[in-house]
Design brief:
single chain; alpha+beta; Immunoglobulin-like; 4-stranded antiparallel β-sheet; flat; Cupredoxin; oxidoreductase activity; oxidoreductase
Length: 146
Amino acid sequence: MLNYNEEVEVVFQGTNLIDASIEHPMHLHGCSFYAIGSGYGVFDNETDPKGYNFVDPPKLNTVTLPKNGWFAIGFKASNPGVWLWHCLYARHLSWGMNSVFIVKNGGTKETSIREPLPYLPPCKDSFTSRLQQYENSAAYRLNKID
């Protein structure tokens, strides 16, 4: 959960438990980030940040996490919403290689998620109520075998 305009730094660590790992293309929806650092081995919180590029880091929405390495990103959470961060390999997404960043609304209408449009139907019908409506329809009665 991130506050609006909060400055964020995240370090992703690639692991290789059975010597079969690969690089992972990681993608963030809803935000761009700066690629401020990367390296091989285990990230060292004391020494590795000293090599971060804060002068001219590339601005991206997808980056490759190296096999047996790490990648550091930085961004300002200025787009309210729920934004998916995931590996682009579909199998890895299904294995749980994903997360979300929830960016809270800012203090004004312009920095907050828009209210739903008044003519949109509410999302209050449950699957059960839709099923009951279907069972009571003429099409269901025609196909029903007594």
